[in-house]
Amino acid sequence: MLNINPASLDAFIKHLREQEYSPATIAKYAHDAEALLRYAPEGIRDKEHLNGFRAWLEDMGYSGASVNSMLGAVNCYLAFLGSDWRLKYVRVQRRAFLPADRELTRQEYESLVSAALEQGDRRLALIVQTLCALGLRISELKAVTVESLAAGEASIHNKGKLRTILIPDALCRKLRAWCGERGIRAGLCLCHPDGPGA
């Protein structure tokens, strides 16, 4: 039996504040953990009972992506409670393309960068900034090298075509600072999290 109650939720929220999560993230996590309390006001009997929460959310009309977002917050709450139980995410089929109205907005972009920095992942924040500033695919990130920063441009080879993209000065400065701090003197800037670029 896993006891969940308003007091433990208040302690969880206090913990998030102490960890310096943003107010928006704290509000979201609190909302999602409250949903678990509504699902099981008497506590979680066992792992099977916990797994029913996912189906309960789907029955409430949440999309797969929304369910997964809520499960991430609830898993964080479970970890805070010291439980080994975790909810598995819903499998969401990816679309082959996105309609034009699903392109990343400025607010979404800034939210992604902020979230990465809040998690202490500066490398991920730089990757998002680089992909968006240069209009690159993930697979093209390897074109951003120390040498390309020195030249101020990157050569992209894709599907038998070659294109050259100018790298804005502000991004160049950020990436050069990143490479300098990590002793990256040649080659890839951001591609290998476990290598010298980590």
Explain what you see.
It is a single chain. With 198 residues, the protein is mostly helical. The protein has 2 domains: 6-80, DNA polymerase, domain 1; 100-182, hpI Integrase, Chain A (Orthogonal Bundle). Helix content is 54%, strand content 6%. The chain contains 8 helices and 2 strands, in the order αααααααββα. It has helices spanning 6-18, 23-39, 47-59, 64-80, 106-118, 122-134, 146-151, 169-182; strands at residues 153-158, 161-166. A two-stranded antiparallel ribbon has the order 1-2. α1 runs antiparallel to α2 (23-39), α2 packs across α4 (64-80) and α6 (122-134) runs antiparallel to α8 (169-182). The longest helix has 17 residues, at 23-39. The chain is elongated and about 65 Å long. The relative contact order is 0.08. Mean pLDDT is 86; it is low at 194-198.
Topology diagram in text:
Layout: H1 6-18, H2 23-39, H3 47-59, H4 64-80, H5 106-118, H6 122-134, H7 146-151, E1 153-158, E2 161-166, H8 169-182
Antiparallel strand pairs: 1-2
Helix pairs in contact: 1-2, 2-4, 5-6, 6-8
